[in-house]
Write a structure and sequence with these properties.
Layout: H1 39-54, H2 75-88, E1 92-93, H3 97-106, E2 116-117, E3 123-124, E4 148-153, E5 159-163, E6 168-171, E7 179-180, E8 190-195, E9 201-205, E10 220-223, E11 247-253, E12 256-261, E13 264-269, E14 278-281, E15 305-310, E16 318-322, E17 332-337, E18 340-343, E19 361-365, E20 372-377, H4 379-384, E21 390-396, E22 405-409, H5 411-415, E23 437-440, E24 448-451, E25 455-458, E26 466-469, E27 498-506, E28 509-516, E29 519-524, E30 539-540, E31 555-558, E32 565-570, E33 576-579, E34 586-590, E35 597-600, E36 603-610, E37 616-619, E38 638-640, H6 644-648, E39 657-660, E40 663-670, E41 673-677, E42 690-694, E43 700-707, E44 710-716, E45 726-732, E46 739-741, E47 757-762, E48 770-774, E49 782-783, E50 792-795, E51 803-804, E52 814-819, E53 825-829, E54 832-836, E55 844-845, E56 854-859, E57 865-870, E58 875-879
Parallel strand pairs: 3-34
Antiparallel strand pairs: 1-49, 2-58, 4-5, 5-6, 6-7, 8-9, 9-10, 11-12, 12-13, 13-14, 15-16, 16-17, 17-18, 19-20, 20-21, 21-22, 23-24, 24-25, 25-26, 27-28, 28-29, 29-30, 31-32, 32-33, 33-34, 35-36, 36-37, 37-38, 39-40, 40-41, 41-42, 43-44, 44-45, 45-46, 47-48, 48-50, 50-51, 52-53, 53-54, 54-55, ...
Length: 884
């Protein structure tokens, strides 16, 4: 079960914030509980109850005078906010910060050696080896990878997949055997992909699913020969106008390419790629960069646009879908009248025009121009309806985006069409502000695919619908946990939470390709269905050649059964992966959003995995299980052992969890309290944790570390930019000697800045010698009190005093650090790994990873190999000697 509902802080950031997916949440995340019913159904029931409680806690309007409005109680929405808080607090980050950081990083001298991807093989979410109580194996998603934000496909078998944080990938065989084609760009976050009439591939960087574990982009790029070429910085369209934005859609018409961004709608000639982009419409231009209100806390939410619909018969007639998903006065549809963009207030038919009912919108046009379709998410529904935020799906049978529009689907109708989401409180469209795609079969204007949490299909223009890609198979009568079967007698489905879609042809056959939180899936456009309307012919294209897995953490331990090591890691929306030394396929032994990971260096099957908010599960057999716990609960081999801050909601979404470097049986966990347990992987109950220090009301831990019984804990509170504060406490694991370190509130030069404190690295030879990593950007980019300068600090007196050792360290968020056996220091940043050799003061770039966030670095048990958990490109290793 999930943690208790809590209000989401209204985050002020130049990144757009909301949630990661809500799929694959383990059933037994509550402390010390085991369930006897299928975990999928049980989880949704819990989510439904939480969402019902949240109604009334949300406000559909963003008010300029109130920094805590627009709140949503959905816990994972808050979690994504917290991911962004670390990078933006104590203020607003100015545009261009990541671009400047990438330029600085690439100019650093490089160490020797090269990185090796260890997760570039299939990752089977239904692996029959791992059907323990905390796994979602047998749900039906099959092989998965990280979130795909956009898709494109042509009629020659070429398919393009744009990932949330791992760049753009190409397949030349109708899907599979993927190759990355955007690694040379300074941004690996995809917002939109589109093929124009001439076969060129357009890329809008910066994921715009209002998900804060994605990153801002560096603009729009075009690839003239997508069959063979790769994107480069020289292929950027226009100037810097769209740098540090997110791009929701790219559309073509009237010789122009149109871009719907978080900073208004822009256009550019599709023929002449030089020259500046033109700002067509921004509802609140004063809030744009350079405007009089650019530093207002609500500025990031004041110019959000979602899509552009162009009349195929009259390309000069354009309709803009504008609006922030949680609601604002500017939300609505706009068209140009007498040279001025004007809100549409009437004559639209069923498609709402009131600001309260226009949120995130997606358009789709039929190839023959006879139909326009639209999905509309409603801020009012989001605020008042616990079941769904979907207002409806609509069609304009005139073929004009001006309508009139007719409603052809609502969430009740979709729920009755074979959906897996039929429980009150969690029904189709519950995340319609995060999950949306829409496309029309080029050969049939009444054949439509729509994506929300699930994939829906209509072949008669919306008169009837089928859930061809249900959320999962749990709860259906065909489901079985039997390891001899992939998913019982049910057909494989897609991963949930849909974002991108494309239709293309391969060897003369048409296929639909969908991108979601689990990667890429395809089926024939006119595929088969069973009696429930579920597709029988989905194929996962996540064959291991496309590794966009979004890791928060990595754990490494000896594989006692097969030799070598076992590598595990916690993932956004894809649980916990486990890769043993003899594996050809990775398995998933825990479900949910996998957070922190502890793995016993001496035994890689002793694993602790954090779900969210310190909901910790532990196993001592890698969670190997044949599912027999369904009928005999005593046969479960993983256990919920969450500290009490999980139940009270006083821990962060991804909360810190660490083992003592000198004693793997002593664990430290951080919420409001610093928790210690000394039973190691034999722990069986959350009652075995002891609170050794109270960080204080409103404070929550951001990092913990321990060595030889000495414990360091960093905290924030408030953690957003409404009064952001941070601190460090130091004490002993036995509860003695605890005290707060005096840190200057202003973050004066040379002192620890007033920014998010992300990690500690303790010298294994001396527990009083410790390093601190600091997230966010220095004051050059951050408009907030005490932002200060620097990202890496050193203390030689147990944290009492700190010295800035950043020197030539790029001004980029630092996420994690580890001291190497030779006394060097490796640091994971939002753009790769940097290293300071022993006895040196300057930093080097380690290898040449793409521009991807490295959220954790960790050493192998023998200290010879450095592991990097990237949030978008899987797990990489490099030999430590190569860093010298």
């Amino acid at each position: 079960m999930s943690a208790p509902t809590r209000r989401r802080r209204w985050l002020t950031t130049c990144a757009i914030t909301a949630t990661a997916g809500l799929v694959a949440i383990p059933a037994s995340a509550a402390p010390g509980t085991h369930g006897s019913s299928p975990f999928g159904a049980r989880t949704l029931a819990q989510l439904a109850a939480e969402r019902a409680q949240s109604v009334g806690a949300m406000s559909p309007k963003v008010k300029e005078d109130d920094g805590d409005d627009g709140n949503e109680a959905d816990e994972i929405a808050e979690g994504a906010d917290q991911y962004a808080e670390a990078r933006t607090s104590p203020g607003i980050v100015a545009p261009g910060a990541y671009g400047a950081a990438w330029s600085s990083l690439t100019k650093l001298p490089s160490t020797g050696g090269s990185w090796r991807n260890v997760t570039d093989l299939p990752y089977n979410s239904d692996d029959p080896r791992y059907r323990d109580i905390d796994s979602n194996s047998s749900g039906g998603s099959g092989n998965v990878t990280g979130r795909m934000a956009a898709m494109a496909a042509d009629n020659d078998g070429y398919v393009y997949a744009g990932s949330a944080g791992g760049g753009v990938w190409r397949s030349r065989g109708g899907g599979g055997h993927w190759k990355p084609i955007s690694d040379r760009l300074p941004a690996q976050s995809t917002g939109a992909l589109a093929l124009d009439g001439g076969g060129r591939l357009w890329l809008g960087t910066g994921e715009a699913t209002t998900n804060a574990d994605a990153y801002l982009g560096s603009g729009v790029y075009v690839l003239s020969d997508p069959h063979h070429g790769t994107f480069s910085t020289r292929s950027r369209v226009g100037g810097k106008e769209l740098e540090s934005t997110t791009v929701h859609q790219l559309r073509f018409g009237g010789g122009k390419v149109w871009a719907a961004t978080n900073e208004g709608v822009w256009s550019h000639s599709a023929k002449k790629l030089g020259g500046a982009w033109k700002l067509e419409y921004a509802p609140n231009p004063d809030y744009l960069p350079g405007g009089s209100k650019a530093d207002d806390p609500s500025a990031p939410y004041k110019n959000i646009t979602n899509d552009i619909a162009i009349d195929p018969k009259h390309p000069s007639k354009v309709v803009l879908a504008v609006g922030w998903r949680s609601g604002d006065d500017y939300n609505g549809f706009y068209t140009r009248a007498n040279g001025t963009w004007t809100r549409i207030s009437s004559g639209f038919g069923d498609l709402p025009t009131d600001a309260d009912d226009v949120g995130s919108v997606t358009f789709a046009r039929s190839a023959d121009g006879s139909r326009y379709y639209a999905i509309d998410q409603s801020p009012e529904q989001l605020n008042t309806n616990p079941d769904s935020g979907l207002k409806g799906i609509y069609v304009s049978k005139s073929g004009s985006p001006s309508g009139p529009w007719t409603k052809i689907a609502d969430y009740q109708g979709l729920a009755a069409a074979g959906s897996a989401l039929t429980s009150p409180g969690y029904m189709p469209g519950v995340q319609a502000w995060y999950n949306q795609f829409l496309t029309v079969d080029p050969a049939d204007p009444e054949h439509v695919y729509a994506g929300l949490e699930e994939v829906y299909e209509t072949k008669d223009g919306g008169s009837s619908w089928s859930t061809v890609g249900p959320y999962w198979n749990f709860g259906f009568s065909c489901w079985s946990i039997d390891p001899a079967k992939q998913t019982g007698d049910c057909n494989p489905t897609t991963h949930s939470d849909q974002h991108g879609v494309a239709i293309g042809r391969y060897h003369g056959k048409s296929f639909v390709y969908v991108g979601n939180d689990g990667g890429v899936y395809k089926r024939p456009v006119n595929g088969s269905q069973d009696s429930s309307g579920h597709a029988t012919d989905w194929t996962s294209l996540n064959d291991g050649t496309i590794d966009t897995l979004q890791y928060y953490s990595v754990g490494v331990g000896k594989d006692l059964d097969h030799g070598g090591v076992s590598v595990t890691g916690g993932l956004q929306d894809n649980g916990q992966s486990v890769l043993r030394s003899n594996d050809k396929v990775m398995g998933s032994n825990f479900g949910g959003d996998g957070g922190a990971t502890l793995t016993d260096p001496a035994n890689g099957c002793n694993i602790a995995e954090e779900y969210v908010y310190l909901a910790v599960q532990v196993t001592q057999n890698c969670a190997v299980n044949d599912g027999s716990w369904i009928t005999d609960p005593s046969k479960a081999t993983s256990y919920g052992v969450a500290p009490a801050d999980n139940a009270t909601g006083e821990a962060r979404f991804i909360a810190p969890l660490a083992a003592d470097a000198k004693n793997s049986s002593t664990w430290i966990a951080g919420g409001r309290h610093v928790w210690v347990q000394t039973h190691g992987y034999a722990i069986r109950s959350g009652d075995e944790w002891k609170s050794v220090y109270d960080l204080g009301e409103g404070h929550t831990a951001t990092a913990v570390a321990a060595s030889g019984g000495k414990v360091y804990a960093a905290w924030c509170g408030p953690c957003n930019n409404q009064g952001f504060a941070r601190g460090i406490a130091v004490g002993n694991a036995d509860g003695t000697g605890w005290h707060d370190i005096a840190l200057p509130a202003t973050g004066a030069d040379g002192t620890v800045p007033n920014r998010y404190l992300s990690g500690f690295a303790v010298d294994p030879k001396n527990a009083d010698h410790v390093y601190l990593t600091v997230n966010g950007f220095s004051r050059q980019w951050t408009e907030g009190p005490g932002a200060g300068v620097g990202h890496v600090f050193e203390s030689k007196d147990g944290g009492t005093t700190w010295k800035d050792i950043s020197k030539n360290f790029p001004d980029v968020p630092a996420d994690s650090a580890v001291v190497t056996p030779n006394g060097g220091l490796a640091v994971g940043t939002d753009l790769g790994v940097v290293y300071r050799a022993p006895g040196r003061s300057s930093w080097q770039r380690v290898g040449s990873l793409p521009a991807v966030a490295v959220l954790q670095v960790k050493l192998s048990p023998d200290g010879r190999t450095l592991y990097a958990a990237t949030h978008g490109r899987g797990i990489y290793t490099i030999q430590v000697r190569d860093c010298d």
